[in-house]
Specification:
By secondary structure, the protein is α/β, with parallel strands linked by helices. The protein is built from 9 helices and 8 strands.
Length: about 220
């Protein structure tokens, strides 16, 4: 029986792809680099801002053709741009609000766990969902290992007072599936996000879901 759902943010709760691409490309331009096609960011994001900076420079410069100073400068500009307007061109996924509200009504505890910096994660969730919808909302924090480490997911389970096996971890990438599995949680891989079904299956998703409504159906079935 599932008593809690832990959601990834980017590509799961909200479509942030164009937003991330906009700020990332703006930072690249300010640093004198070429922009990257928005669709390519599907495979660059998901592992935190530090990894994103490396992936961006690998793409535009080639691996090893940049310095730590280049990474630091790009990250500083990216952070400044993003933190000023983290909800810019972020959009909802159809049916997500209804699903989250239905889970809440059913007494399921809800949390968000993202590798996006915590302040930006909180700002997006606050903008898209009513106050109090989620019991917990955590982005990347200095004292907690980023996903796919299970540390953040396990801390959430402990704080919610739910055993890991009673949590369903929901995400759209291999990072999410690895996080949930390492935490001893079942995982739901979503097909509306940034990656494809093969990646989710290859990383042993417990469920593959095509619409947010199916998340509620899975949880409701476990309660019967």
């Amino acid at each position: 029986m599932y008593k809690a759902c832990i959601f990834d943010l980017d590509g799961t709760l909200a479509n942030t792809l164009d937003s991330i691409a906009y700020f990332a490309n703006s930072a690249l331009k300010k640093c004198g680099y070429e922009c990257i096609e928005n669709e390519k960011y599907r495979y660059l994001v998901g592992n935190g801002a530090d990894r994103l900076m490396h992936a961006m420079l690998d793409t535009v410069c080639g691996a090893g053709n940049y310095t730590e100073n280049d990474i630091g400068r790009l990250r500083e500009i990216y952070d400044d741009l993003y933190e000023n307007d983290p909800t810019y061109i972020v959009t909802n996924y159809n049916g997500m609000h209804e699903t989250v509200n239905a889970l809440k009504t059913a007494g399921i505890k809800l949390a968000v766990l993202s590798n996006k910096p915590h302040n930006c994660t909180a700002a997006i969730v606050d903008a898209l969902f009513d106050e109090g919808t989620f019991d917990l909302c955590y982005g990347q924090r200095a004292q907690v290992a980023r996903k796919p480490s299970p540390e953040g997911a396990l801390l959430i389970a402990e704080e919610l007072g739910v055993e890991p096996k009673g949590c369903l971890y929901i995400g759209d990438t291999n990072t999410d599936m690895k996080t949930g599995a390492a935490a001893g949680m079942d995982t739901a891989g979503v097909l509306w996000g940034f990656r494809d079904e093969n990646e989710l299956k290859e990383n042993n998703a417990t469920y593959i879901v095509e619409s947010p409504k199916q998340i509620y159906e899975i949880v409701a079935c476990s309660m019967r």
